[in-house]
Amino acid sequence: MIRRKPHSTPWCAFSGLLVPILIGMMPTLVAAQQLTCDPKLRATLGVPTAPSNAQVGRAVAIDGRFAVVGASQGAFVFERMAGVWTLTQELVPSAPAQAFGSGVAIDDGRILVGAKWSGTAFVFRFDGTSWIEEAQLFPQGGIAGDEFGYSVALRGSLAVVGAPEVSLWGNPGWTYVFRFDGVNWIQEQQLVPSDGENEDRFGNAVDVDEDVIVVGAYNEGHTGQSFPDGTGAAYVYRFDVGAQLWLEETRLVSADPVPGELDQFGFDISLSGQRLLVGTNPISFSVSPIGSAYLFQQDGAQWAFEAKLVSSDGEGADRFGSAVALDGELALIGAWGEWSTGNGCPFPQICHSGSAYVFARQNGAWQQEAQFTRPGIQNGDNFAWSVDLSRGAAVLGAWGVDTIAPSAGAAYVYDLRGCAPPSVELGK
Predict the structure, then answer these.
(1) What is the CATH number of the domain that holds 399?
(2) Which burial class, exposed, middle or buried, applies to 31 when counting CB atoms under 10 A from its CB (0-12, 13-18, 19+)?
(3) What does the pLDDT average to over 105-119?
(4) Which range, 126-140, 346-360, 413-427, has the best average confidence (pLDDT)?
(5) Could you give the CA distance from residue 239 to residue 241 in angstroms, rounded to a whole number?
(6) Which of helix, strand or coil describes residue 45?
């Protein structure tokens, strides 16, 4: 899943690897940490040859024994073998692709990698030994500079690619759906919001599960400033078998923002079955923005608000909710702006060490189970900039980590199964 903006200066790929619904008044959910829940660090996913500013961890995705980690220019596959996570392959596209790795997704033996500065995406398939390129995707009707590949999602025979930067050309942003017909990946539809306006950033985040696609537009409701100041929205599409079209089912917005904040609702999204998690990345001109995430559950043709998640120790500029992942009844929320080092970093100073929060649904209610960060956390790590979940395993990107080289970055795998009580359902 996601999809953060890579570093402004590309670097060469590595070589020589040996290895419209208003939610109404919502209660805020703030639950005490459950000290018995202890996320277990299982692996650090680093690239030994990464140079300075490689920013490994800009995007992450995990599915079973495979994880894929995107960088400012590169994508890397790690595999868990005999309980050990090992770097097994650098994915190399068949054509020049700037910002290759800007978005990554993985599902059932396929990987989708976006290259937003080249306006393309690539599908790779696991042949039992290695990952081979299966297709290169281009948008029909796309335009130069649309950032096609900024965000990507993959589920079975469906691939979804966001192109949010067409706002520069007087559009709200576009999202494209591709379907594998058994031989080729064919563009099925271009999604456009029913109420879209210029600069909405529609397509900044995407996800798909079965016959539902959700698209974020974090700058929806903006005032036309030169910087993003929107309240944001998320659009739900469902495939109509009769019409053979993806139809807009509903538009979700936050009706409970913190006074003085602009939520940027839809900054990240995660879909798991009939449940949807929508993250925020609030900005503020009058108060210290903390952040939140919203859960919705499908109820027939409606998506009903279920809970608003906030951290138990929120501080200004935490960016809680800027990265989210959902696996059944287990949620993982990133807060890359939190200053976790304990050496003092009061708002508005930006220290960006980062932290992550685990929530689970127990006895019909969502509660915070744990907060954690990587060992030896440092200012500028941006830990939990990107997050994903699969069967209780979590992968979190930290593109600012300096262990190999300055801002070479890394990702971290944690076991969260101990944070999910037996009653909690793990989805994918």
Answers:
(1) 2.130.10.130
(2) middle
(3) 97
(4) 126-140
(5) 6
(6) strand
- For residue 224, pLDDT over 80 is answered with no
Which residue range forms the structural domain that includes residue 234? 28-419
**Pair 224, 204: CB distance under 8 Å:** no
Rounded alpha-carbon distances, angstroms, from residue 114 to 4, 111, 131, 309: 11, 10, 16, 30
Distances (CA, A) of 269 to 121, 185, 277: 20, 24, 6
In a domain, 18, yes or no: no
- Is 373 within 8 Å of 352 (Cβ atoms)? no
- What distance in Å separates the CA atoms of residue 332 and residue 324, rounded to the nearest whole number? 6
CB of 12 closer than 8 Å to CB of 73: yes
- 21 vs 219 pLDDT, higher one: 219
pLDDT tens track for 319-361: 899 999 999 999 999 999 876 555 555 554 556 789 999 999 9
Number of domains in the chain: 1
Torsion of CA 244, 249, 251, 254, to 10 degrees: -130
Residues forming beta bridges with residue 155, ordered by sequence position: 158
* CB-based contact 289:258 (threshold 8 Å): yes
Structure tokens at 322: 């800027």
Global pTM reads 0.89
